[in-house]
Amino acid sequence: MNYTRINDHEIEIIPGKTPIHKVLETMARLSYELARPPSSEFLELLDTKSKDIDFLEFVHLNCYQVLDIDYVNERQCKTKVRKTNDGKFVFDAWLYEMNRGSPEVFLDKVKSALEENVEDSKTPAESDKDKSVFRKTPGIGDLLDLLLEFLNPWT
Fold first, then answer.
1. φ, ψ at 123 (rounded to 5°)
2. What is the pLDDT of residues 104-122, one digit of tens each?
3. Whole-prediction pTM value?
4. What confidence category does residue 140 fall into, taking pLDDT thresholds of 50, 70 and 90?
5. How many Å apart are CA 116 and CA 110, to the nearest integer?
6. Every domain of the chain and the residues it spans
7. Which of 10, 42, 113, 133 could be joined to 6 by an S-S link, Cβ 3.0–4.6 Å?
8. What's the CA gap between 151 and 46, in Å, rounded?
9. Dihedral pair phi/psi, residue 71, rounded to 5°
């Protein structure tokens, strides 16, 4: 995986040999892990560890927004990736930087995490879970993504 800045607001994600759903899942997981947990002591008791969350639920390869993770368990993740008409994956760097900090530092951590996990072998259950991101039939999410695409002035 690699990335290149397109402009002040966007960074292109270049998956390389890594499957894009794995890149997006890793981005979602790290976005959650790096977000500050809730400050309330009561809420901290209810905080969910990242190993207990299926981050593939936030990946929608057949939609305009292929990754859209806003708040999860009161953590401000603010990580969005869209797919352009020419098949490129574009990270909303402006949104991330405004709410979380340097998008390049975040993407470097994603890249490192993916490189560390290259040698990990998958169990059959994980392989079946990976196939679930390739939905064949459009759903309500696709309709909402299409509507948002027409309403978004930055596309």
1. -85, 160
2. 999 999 999 999 887 554 4
3. 0.69
4. low
5. 10
6. 2-151
7. 10
8. 36
9. -115, 130
CA distances from 88 to 46, 108, 109, 118, 136 (A): 38, 19, 21, 23, 20
Q: Do residues 31 and 79 touch, judged by C-beta distance below 8 A?
A: yes
Q: Which residue has the tokens 């009561």?
A: 42
Residue with the bigger pLDDT between 40 and 107: it is 107
How far apart are the C-alpha atoms of 155 and 130, rounded to whole Å? 29
Residue with tokens 């402009």: 7
Burial 48-74 (b: 16+ CB within 10 A, else e): eeeeebebbebbbebbbbbbbbeebbb
Using DSSP, state whether 107 is helix, strand or coil: helix
Helices (H), 20-73: 20-34, 41-46
What tens digit of pLDDT does each residue of 15-29 get?
999 999 999 999 999
> How many whole angstroms from its chain centre is CA 143?
20
